Hints:
By secondary structure, the protein is α+β, with helices and mostly antiparallel strands. 33% of the residues lie in helices and 21% in strands. The strands form five sheets. It has a five-stranded antiparallel beta sheet. The chain has a three-stranded antiparallel beta sheet with strand order 10-13-12, with no helix packed on it. The protein has a two-stranded antiparallel sheet with strand order 1-2.
Amino acid sequence: MWEDATNKECYGVKRRYLLGDQLDSVMNYPFREAIINYVKGGDPRDFIYSVMTILEHYPKPAIDTLMNFVSTHDIERAINRLGGEYCGDKDKDWMAERWLSNEQYEYGKNLLKTAMALMFFLPGVPCIYYGDEAGLQGYKDPFNRRCYPWGNEDHELIEYVKELSRVRKSIPNLKSGRTYFVINRGQILDDRVMAFTRQGSETDYIFFINRTGEEFVFNNVSEYFFNFGRYEQFLGKYEDDTLIVPPYGYSIIKAKFTGKF
């Protein structure tokens, strides 16, 4: 669904997709646009607003089964959108012969990693458009439907996506846990890092995703997250109340929510 499925109008009629008798869930284009725009340097507040709008509008069963993605057969591949040139005003001849330079590819690949981490850890079900995990390039249809790059896969990217899958499988909260963005006294954590929780009955997980090429060091975590307790390292470097989030990467700590957002 390109727009918010709860208030979409088509041919003058407001659709009833998620009222219980039409669709179980939808393709989550609003998350995709929010993720891509944020990873490319957009305002973090816009990202939070876009995600929370969907979470507040959709029924919980639909949220838990949203089809999350960063590429589809209808749009240019995420690595091209993130690392390449704007293609909205280009014709098919331009797109047919256009490939990312080595520098564009590496930059797009790094941003793609960040985008995929958000896709895997936000509510919904991560859906990988074939080839994204292998570094397949392609601008708009039909060039986004090129054959899988057998023998030329980006194995480092494949291993990264496998690791995301393993992490997601190891955290039960990611199946249905509620999501809260970490905002302290009206302020986001930092423009470079997106932080949010996926809550559970026994343990909460706090996710930190770094959209920059520089390591992010976060000192005095417990002072900022004053409404949490029982902090524990889960994935990444967390020691002596200091958290390190790698470039274009993520770190996760376990905690227990003790107050109010």
